[in-house]
Amino acid sequence: MSPLFDHVGIGGGQEASAVTTTDHRAGKFEAKFFDKILEEEIGGVKGHFGPINALAFNPDGKSFSSGGEDGLYVRLHHLDSDYFNIKL
């Protein structure tokens, strides 16, 4: 959950066992963000090649990290100015 806005970040994707047998674009390996009051999707960030198992906002609300099954990587994502100007 964002420390600045009423936003929730989620991860996920398809089952890890199906990753090698399907098109990588079909796996939905992206972090998605929703307004927790309106329940509307407000955006998404691609970058993983496998299911996302962990996602957390930085306490300052300007970035988030995600970790998944695509290796030993934790990805740090900096949110751009568009995110801070979202009008619903």
From TrEMBL:
GO molecular function, one term: translation initiation factor activity
GO biological process: cytoplasmic translational initiation
Record's keyword annotation contains Disulfide bond: no
Domain of life: Eukaryota
UniProtKB keywords: Initiation factor, Protein biosynthesis, Repeat, WD repeat
UniProt record similarity statement: Belongs to the WD repeat STRAP family.
Swiss-Prot/TrEMBL WD repeat ranges: 45-71
Protein name, per record: Serine-threonine kinase receptor-associated protein
Annotated Gene Ontology cellular component terms: eukaryotic translation initiation factor 3 complex, eIF3m
InterPro entries cross-referenced by the UniProt entry: WD40/YVTN_repeat-like_dom_sf, WD40_repeat_dom_sf, WD40_rpt
